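ARCHIVE CARD
SHELF: 3
SLOT: left
DATA:
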Amino acid sequence: MTEREWDKRLHIKTIGREDESSADCSPYEPTPYAVLERLVDAGCVGRRDHLLDYGCGKGRVACFMAHAALCRVTGIDYAQKLIDIAAQNRKASGTGDRVRLVCARAEQYGISEENVFFFFNPFSERIFAGVLRRIVESWYARPRLLKIICYYPSEAYLACLDAAPECTLMADIDCNDLFSGKNPRERLVIYALPDGK
């Protein structure tokens, strides 16, 4: 299905770029539905998971994953305007209490029961490093299998993940066949922190 067809099927409006950005945060750009389909088909996220979408924007990842993977999703964004749009999309999509939205800065958000973390380069390496520290602290406080998923990962994000001794590369899913041209960043990279059992 095309981007518009998926939006129509989910009863949401997420197409288009929004320039709600700052020096440390990127403008809103939705993750392509084809990439999200690939993620669900890989079986990396399921109904027992609670996914935290950093830089959720208009809520595409949240609504799609709650619909396709039947997981719970928390979407977080620092821009109230985007959270308001995401709230309208959540209501229209009928995902109900499977989707929760929070307007907050990522590096200040307290991780609780979330176990899957999704990033599409929403902010600078500095903020990512701080968020990664919070994820690792959450794992030490309550050891459980955690997954960190990066779509179109930057070298800086990958360097942070590779430098964290708790994180192990779990999967590297090529997405080049979904788009024209060859771009080494067109992939989903998944790191794991073990369940500690």
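SLOT: right
DATA:
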Amino acid sequence: MTKPQTAAFLTFSLLALSGIFLILYATPQGLILSDDSIAYIAGARSILSGQGYREAWLASNGPVTHFPPFFSALLALIGISGLDPLRGARFLNAVLFGANIFLLGVIGWRMTKSQIAGAALAFLFLVNYSLVRVHATAMSEPLYIFLTLIAFLVFDFYFQRKQKRWLIVTGALVGLAYLTRYAGLALFATCLASLFLLRENWRDRLARSALFVGSFLPFALGWSLRNQLVAHNATNRTLSYHPLTLENIQTGIYNLSLFLMPVEAWRRALVKIPNLFAVIVWLVGAGLLIWLLQKGLTKFFKPHTKTPEILSFISALYIFGYLASIVSSMLLFDASTKFQLRILAPIFVSALILTIYFLAQLQSKQKLLSSLCYLILIAFSTYGAFNLTAQLHKGGQGYASFQWYDSEAMKFLRNLPEDVRIYTNEAAPVYLYTQRGAYVLPDLVDPVTGQARGGFEEGLATLQADVLSGKAVLALFDIGKDEQTQRLYQTLGAGLYLAFDKQDDTIYTAYP
């Protein structure tokens, strides 16, 4: 290894170690916890207990099919050492943050042939407000991003060295990404489309595509077969149309604005300009699509022309493939999926890669302008990451916050006899703080399909009969929600004894 190469790897390693320290410093009381976080952690605990991958946070304790298993499996593997998956997730995500920083340094270096550009990409990832927050949350996205970046690199190795083994490894990595998030199908489609566009003849396109698909399929088919055998459903999704809501679109714009402008005071000022961020997205997206089509179609119709730079090309193609996958899921399979930060994070990573690629292109023509853009990006990003780190370091967030672990309602539930069932609107934190699976409430609308759910009256009668018999309690958290939800809670608690009413939480029991 030459001295410049050694210097580059040392720089990337130093930035990676800084990232590991940053996550550990920002989360002294643990990672941010959400409903899905608890599902992954409970699934890992279930694997550790020898029961398999099951919904341990629910009293039904059925097989998990909604969440792919790889993240929980890694937490369970860490748990063999004696570290509970709740704590193990913090160390795993910290290491993944460091690994992703290192990988992006290598990607930037290979993509631009500039060590400075590689270091800039790694540093921008290290101090990016949105991506730091993603890695500070107990979710599968850091692992998914890690597998995606390795797949990008190995795919680039394949085009450079023309050796089939690199394509087989790419297929296996994409398979693991699918076992981490179902959105891995977008990564699969990206690589497959690239093989068709960038190979030089139909024989190579079909042969290499078949090799790639064959390397991926065992992972996807194996998981689907397991689900079909244990739950009679391949992915716990059903085909049903539900349009995008205005609230969902606004959520996406909000998270996009945080990514583009991490300085909160400035972001709020910019948001007041009507449709500013939507226009930015459309303009950048249109320009990127034109660039992508020009590069891809030129190579497809003129096979002997120069192959586009692979890492930038697949990063751009992946943005559109991933976005199409997510929107399709929202429209046809899962109405509960929203444009949350965790959902948009893979797009943000590709956006950073492309930003460095185009800035490196600009560097050769307008060095001063390119350097100014680097400085602005680094300054804004560093400011946003500093504020976020200080905020996270103050205490846990989500279900890890003091509102939950100091909750008097949770203390009430922990003191219940073990054979008393708990019906609740917050099954995840109830499991986390009472160590028992909870029963979900009967509901009028299925959040996944967005359609009316049958059997509400029967579910209500069962719940109230269980509570009145003393076999169960009804625990409702944060009852001061919208009027429709409040009416539902009033219906559920009608005729029951209000045994606890504090901190906007209520618990109903049988009459004393």
